[in-house]
């Protein structure tokens, strides 16, 4: 059987070789370049090939970095919370209420926002929330306000709203899949053993849906931290997040080593938080159904 | 194999028992589909009762209406004298063992068994002791800390049993609990379930499509077809005196031969059966329901007759024939025998199946040899 396994192994490796090479080329190589840059010295408009830890020292000592990193984490955390909290009822409805024959249609409807570019969707929020936007002109024509509200746009709230909307499908789908996997007789067993529907949800459905919730949280949290477009458009460029800071170092100030050090540091922080989050939920993640 | 008590012992046990479950003209519709068509049923306290039937006959629906997972369209369901109309599953004195066992995968064995004890006023230590006791009762002592996914099929079933029994229900409902187990395990669990039922004294209601399982375990069996109860009887009565061809066919194997009715007397009905000749069927063996499309027929079980050598004779009536087919099972041999003259009224040959135990010294007969079939009128059932 050993030969058989070897043949199988070789077949498997051959099969994954092209995408693997592609991934190395377009993901690992740029990533390694960034890591390499972060240990090099910056000369004006050039990079000096000399090893240094100075960039990291500067990053950790920089109070602006602290502020922007904390803001990014705060916004991403808030977006994750809002998105998952709103996505769960949708996924629950989809899994438990919708007629099985209509589920694929509903899934299709949920993916419709993806038909429009992310940039355009973010821009549309600007149209909705803007000084002369849909909300303000609507309220004005109803006579509720006289002057347009200025607090709708260019702040953290509007960023959270935009990002939560943009990432909603990403959160709905993993939760939906986790809910679909739950054997319905488990819920009947919960009620048969004397629990109400609400308690059965708390004691059976939610724990079993947690792998989906964890996946949804990470899928929303990780890209949101590095989001560049929303802070630029909805935040008006006045409330930068970490991606904007990296961009400014890399391009505006042409300090590639510093920008790289920022990027690597942010990446490590996100990785650490994700690992801690998964460790906190490991009880739910190792459940085999 | 039969571990169950004789009919007499069962009567002694339940003679004074009060009704535990009463169904009165229970109807259930799913849209246009008529799933339960007027179920009338009384299940006595302490009884091991089975609902037996092919898939889609409504047996699981009936069980689920008793458990409270399905509303009934009309009729009455009483449990221990209480009308269950509007009583949700969580407040019914029933607990269920699900077909898939429905073991909570995120909880340990002990947490599964103790699931229903959340509102129990006892202390944590007392509850833990109760869980351990329930596990011991189903033979899983010391398994409490195991993860539920590490259990085998049989163990999952035991956990499901312990989880239901720890709540001391008045009725335990079992939905095809053995269908997922392999044959050996299934036979072992059948015996264990019977013992457990005697031990706890709770009314068990079992749903199964396996007639052997129902015969082995039950005090009484309701055979269901198309949302109706076709026959309700003890296993022995059901097997020996089926009231319709359909029930006879569903429970075990029965041979059917066409019959012509010649006359009736106080003691029975005289019939002419091609191959068997003129026979008087005793009055107790006559079924008036559902004769089938082919008119009256007599039926007999493969083991109710026996196969003799060509020259052997016994006191019973003997009919000669030719062996058409031999199926060897190790402990048993099945013979398909074409009785002389059995082609009968319409000229169609109807070989009859005869089961013989392969006792020491009895040789297995060959295909094509002539043999004598010995039978007695008392083993025939007339469907007219």
TrEMBL record, chain A:
Transmembrane segments: 20-40, 73-94, 106-131, 151-179, 200-222, 258-280
Classification via PANTHER family: INNER MEMBRANE ABC TRANSPORTER PERMEASE PROTEIN YDCU-RELATED (PTHR42929:SF1), INNER MEMBRANE ABC TRANSPORTER PERMEASE PROTEIN YDCU-RELATED-RELATED (PTHR42929)
Domain ABC transmembrane type-1: 69-279
Cell compartment(s), UniProt: Cell membrane
Keywords recorded for this protein, A-Z: Cell membrane, Membrane, Transmembrane, Transmembrane helix, Transport
Family named by the database record: Belongs to the binding-protein-dependent transport system permease family. CysTW subfamily.
Protein name in UniProt: ABC transporter permease subunit
Biological process, per Gene Ontology: transmembrane transport
Key word Lyase present: no
Membrane topology qualifier: Multi-pass membrane protein
From TrEMBL, chain B:
Pfam families: ABC_tran (PF00005), TOBE_2 (PF08402)
Record keywords, A-Z: ATP-binding, Nucleotide-binding, Transport
Sequence ranges assigned to domain ABC transporter in this UniProt record: 21-251
Annotated GO MF terms: ATP binding; ATP hydrolysis activity; transmembrane transporter activity
GO biological process entries: putrescine transport
Secretion signal, residue range per the UniProt entry: none
UniProt KW Transport keyword: yes
GO cellular component entries: ATP-binding cassette (ABC) transporter complex
UniProt-recorded name of the protein: ATP-binding cassette domain-containing protein
Annotated source species: Paracoccus limosus
């Amino acid at each position: 059987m050993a030969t058989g396994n070897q043949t199988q192994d070789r077949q498997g490796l051959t099969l994954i070789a092209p995408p693997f090479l592609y991934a190395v080329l377009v993901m690992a190589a740029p990533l390694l370049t960034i890591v390499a840059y972060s240990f090099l010295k910056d000369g004006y408009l050039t990079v000096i090939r000399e090893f240094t830890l100075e960039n990291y020292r500067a990053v950790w000592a920089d109070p602006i970095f602290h502020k922007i990193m904390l803001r990014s984490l705060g916004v991403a955390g808030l977006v994750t919370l809002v998105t998952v909290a709103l996505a769960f009822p949708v996924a629950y409805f989809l899994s438990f209420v919708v007629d099985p024959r209509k589920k694929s249609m509903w899934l299709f409807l949920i993916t419709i926002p993806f038909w429009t570019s992310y940039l355009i969707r973010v821009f549309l929020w600007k149209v909705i929330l803007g000084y002369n936007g849909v909300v303000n002109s609507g309220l004005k024509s109803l006579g509720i306000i006289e002057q347009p509200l200025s607090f709708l746009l260019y702040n953290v709230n509007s960023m959270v709203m935009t990002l939560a909307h943009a990432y909603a499908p990403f959160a709905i789908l993993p939760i939906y899949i986790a809910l679909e996997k739950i054997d319905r007789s488990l819920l009947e067993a919960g009620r048969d053993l004397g629990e109400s529907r609400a308690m059965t949800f708390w004691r059976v459905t939610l724990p079993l849906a947690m792998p989906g919730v964890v996946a949804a949280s990470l899928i929303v949290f990780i890209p949101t931290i590095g989001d560049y477009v929303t802070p630029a458009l909805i935040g008006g460029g006045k409330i930068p997040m970490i991606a904007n800071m990296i961009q400014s170092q890399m391009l505006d100030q042409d300090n590639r080593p510093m920008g790289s050090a920022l990027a690597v540091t942010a990446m490590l922080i996100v990785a650490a938080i994700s690992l801690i989050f998964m460790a906190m939920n490991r009880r739910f993640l190792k459940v085999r159904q | 194999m039969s571990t169950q008590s004789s009919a007499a012992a069962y009567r002694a046990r339940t003679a004074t028992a009060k009704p535990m479950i009463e169904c009165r003209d229970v109807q259930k519709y799913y849209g246009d589909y008529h799933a339960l068509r007027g179920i009338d049923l009384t299940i006595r306290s302490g009884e091991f009762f089975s609902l037996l039937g092919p898939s889609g006959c409504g047996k699981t629906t009936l069980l689920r209406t008793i458990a409270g997972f399905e509303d009934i369209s009309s009729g009455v369901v009483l449990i221990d004298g209480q009308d269950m109309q509007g009583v949700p599953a969580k407040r019914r004195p029933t607990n269920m063992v699900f077909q898939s066992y429905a073991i909570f995968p995120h909880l340990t064995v002990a947490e599964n068994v103790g699931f229903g004890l959340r509102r129990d006023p006892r202390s944590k230590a007392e509850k833990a002791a109760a869980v351990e006791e329930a596990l011991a009762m189903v033979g899983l002592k010391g398994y409490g800390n195991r993860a539920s996914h590490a259990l085998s099929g049989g163990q999952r079933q035991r956990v499901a049993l312990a989880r239901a029994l720890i709540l001391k229900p008045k009725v335990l409902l079992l939905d095809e609990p053995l269908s997922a187990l392999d044959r050996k395990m299934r036979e072992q669990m059948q015996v264990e379930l019977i013992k457990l039922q005697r031990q706890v004294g709770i009314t068990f209601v079992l749903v199964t499509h396996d007639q052997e399982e129902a015969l082995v375990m039950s005090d009484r069996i309701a055979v269901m077809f198309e949302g109706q109860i076709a026959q309700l009887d003890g296993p022995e009565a059901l097997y020996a005196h089926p009231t319709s061809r359909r029930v006879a066919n569903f429970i075990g194997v029965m041979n059917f031969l066409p019959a012509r009715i010649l006359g009736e007397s106080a003691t029975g009905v005289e019939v002419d059966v091609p191959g068997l000749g003129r026979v008087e069927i005793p009055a107790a063996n006559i079924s008036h329901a559902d004769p089938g499309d082919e008119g009256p027929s007599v039926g007999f079980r493969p083991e109710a007759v026996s196969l003799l050598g060509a020259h052997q004779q016994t006191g019973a009536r003997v009919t000669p024939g030719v062996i058409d087919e031999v199926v060897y099972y190790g402990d048993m041999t099945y013979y398909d025998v074409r009785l002389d003259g059995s082609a009968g009224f319409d000229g169609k040959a109807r070989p009859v199946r005869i089961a013989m135990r392969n006792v020491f010294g009895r040789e297995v007969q060959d295909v094509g040899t002539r043999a004598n079939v010995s039978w007695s009128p008392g083993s025939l059932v007339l469907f007219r």
